[in-house]
Amino acid sequence: MSLSASDFAQSFQHLREKLQQLALPKEEQDFWLKQLKSIERALAMANFKFERMEREKKSLENLLESTISELNEKNQNLLELNASLIATEEELRQNSEELRVLNEMLEDRIKAAIFETEMQANTIKKKNIHITDSINYAKRIQEAMLWKEEEIKQLFPESFVFFRPKDVVSGDFYWFADLETKTEETDKRQEKESEKALAVVADCTGHGVPGAFMSLIINDGLNQIVKVRGIHAPAEILKLLDLHVKSTLRQEGTLNRDGADVGVCLVDKSAKKITFAGAKSNALIIQNAQVQVFKGTNLSVGGDIGGYKLRQKVEFENYTLPFQIGKTLIYLYSDGYKDQFGGKDDKKLSGRNFRKLLEKNQALPLAEQGRRLESYFVEWKQKREQLDDVLVVGLKV
Questions:
Q1: pLDDT < 70 positions in the chain
Q2: Residues near 42 by Cβ (< 8 Å), separated by ≥ 6?
Q3: Nearest residue to 258 (alpha-carbon basis) of 296, 293, 217
């Protein structure tokens, strides 16, 4: 325990008084007073240090107490944090388990979906193969129906057919008939030359499979009218063909409006005349470098039951033109060639440019004309989609 400054002063004052009472010689008394003074200073210094140590001790005790309190608080916080982490860990574990279960369920569903998709893809692939096989078979049927090049050349030795379907099968088709053949005897063989023949170009509603079905109906009608009933006049053929389509498709009592644009050209070499009739189909004829366009009646074969056809009797018009053998070119065509978009401005080729192209090539052999038409069409179209079936028939009579 430390003494206050006043306690020290009183204690040493008492000691000095006692020393003076001893009646010591002055020198001895001064000596002891000096010693007493030294002791007093030493004790005062010791007492000062002691007090300072007491203060430091107190400060350290306070600091220790504060530190312990702070540590206790932090420890409590750590305990609470640890408890929270334990709870979070448990929650994460539960969530992880739920995610694992959900992931397994999702994987199962994905596997099931992939399996189902693969099954559907295989089914679609098989159906597509079946459909493609059916369409290819239909193509073979249509090709069998069309006249072969060598057959056409028996009627028209100088001729070409530029036929380019949009799809595998076509709504455009061509048809010929040998109506009268003359046989001439030569030294080595018999030569047959057709004196009268029919050439027909038809553009049926639509293209692809629907158009191909219509082409079968038109083909059947032509065979019945020309080969069975013996009708040769182009306008009469179109009139009966119109009735055939309406009857076959029962258009009077249904909503069916399918039909065809048809051009029929009769070439009679013995009479030296050409007769043409068209149902929304034209013929271009070049004779002695002069170009003539025979425009067909603005009515299709079949189709338009209402309106004009319902109120009026359908009539098709014959155009007749004398010709000089070996100097006359006949072009029958659908609208696919002239309606094709292309060129640098991506526009229709147009009927005017189509006519110019035929005029430009008129002096060439017919086979070369066909090749020129095809190469020009490919160059014009470039990589654009072909919009419709294309058919151009060229004949020299």
A1: 1-9, 181-194, 304-314
A2: none
A3: 217
Burial 293-304 (b: 16+ CB within 10 A, else e): ebebbebbbbbb
- Exposed, middle or buried, 317 (CB in 10 Å: 0-12/13-18/19+)? middle
Q: What are phi and psi of 374, to 5 degrees?
A: -65, -45
Q: Is 332 helix (H, G, I), strand (E, B) or coil?
A: strand
Residue 292 CA to residue 284 CA, distance in Å, equals 6
Q: Which helix (H) or strand (E) holds 58?
A: helix 26-145
CATH class of 146-396: alpha beta
For residue 34 the two structure tokens come to: 């000096």
**Phi, psi (degrees; rounded to nearest 5) at 254:** -130, 180
Structure confidence at residue 209 (pLDDT): 81
Using alpha carbons, select from 246, 239, 237, 197 the residue that is nearest to residue 217: 246
Contact 224, 244 (CB under 8 A): yes
Convert 209-224 to b/e letters by CB count within 10 Å (16 or more is b). Answer: bebbbbbbbbbebbee
β-bridge partners, 183: 192
3-class secondary structure, 217: helix
Which tokens go with 67?
A: 């530190």
Residue 132, classified by CB atoms within 10 Å of its CB into exposed (0-12), middle (13-18) or buried (19+), is exposed
> Distance between CA atoms of 273 and 266, rounded to whole angstroms?
8
Q: Are 316 and 279 within 8 A, CB to CB?
A: yes
What length is written for the chain? Answer: 397
Cα–Cα distance, 65 to 72 (Å, whole number): 10
3-state secondary structure of 210: helix
**Identity of the residue numbered 80:** E
The per-residue DSSP string of 352-383 comes to: HHHHHHHHHTTTS-HHHHHHHHHHHHHHHHTT
- Residues 128, 168: Cα–Cα separation, whole Å: 14
Surface-to-core class of residue 110, CB atoms within 10 Å of its CB (0-12 exposed, 13-18 middle, 19+ buried): exposed
Query: What is the structure's pLDDT at 304?
Result: 64
> Residues 176, 199: contact at Cβ < 8 Å?
yes
Q: To the nearest 5 percent, what fractions of the chain are helix, strand and coil?
A: 55, 20, 25
| pLDDT at residue number 306 | 53
